[in-house]
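Predict structure. Chain length: 221.
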Amino acid sequence: RPEEYGCENRKAACGNSASLPQKPSYTADHLAAFQEKEEVRELLFVAESYLGRPLTSTDIQTLLYWYDGLGHSTDLIVYLLEYCIAGGHSSLHYMEKIALSWKDSGITTVTQAKQNVNTHSQLHYAVLKSLGIQGRNLIPAESAYLETWSKELGFSQDMITEACSRTILTIHQPNFEYTDTILKNWREKNVRHSKDIDALDANYMKEKERRKKSAVKTAAT
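Prediction complete.
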């Protein structure tokens, strides 16, 4: 679903936004040149049909940025429009976050985009289930955490859901900041797999027992 791509800012949605092309302002001559291309004319027609309203000059600038600036094919842009509108999101500003994310991830075909959507959907619902969140989708700020955990920190879905489960076991409520702390701690300790968690837990219990014995010994003296 499109909610998985929501975030508070462009950097959160797309990782290293500095590497992405900046959004230009196309002149009237540029627009005329673009509209000489049949595929661009078709794209604008389809976009207007999907949005159910005439395109504004800002809309056209945005669509051309996806096509020209980001280098997305018209097929990929049409799929983006379909995907977002089917999910109840008709804002081009919202769609642009996904377009930027796909560019940053090297997604160039509809097939790749569909695979990306499926992967994010699975993680999205796995996190909702692990945190016991029902009756709503993740808000943009929460979705941004998923992007960080899976892309920036590089954790698998199993590791992310384990951190979510530990959050509930420890503080008994969903808290993305707490889960984020767990995962960043694992990253610092090079914990990448479940067996690494087991070793970390064993070391923690040994240290806890050592401190307990030390405290008892100190109290007895």
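Summary: The chain is about 70% helix and 0% strand.
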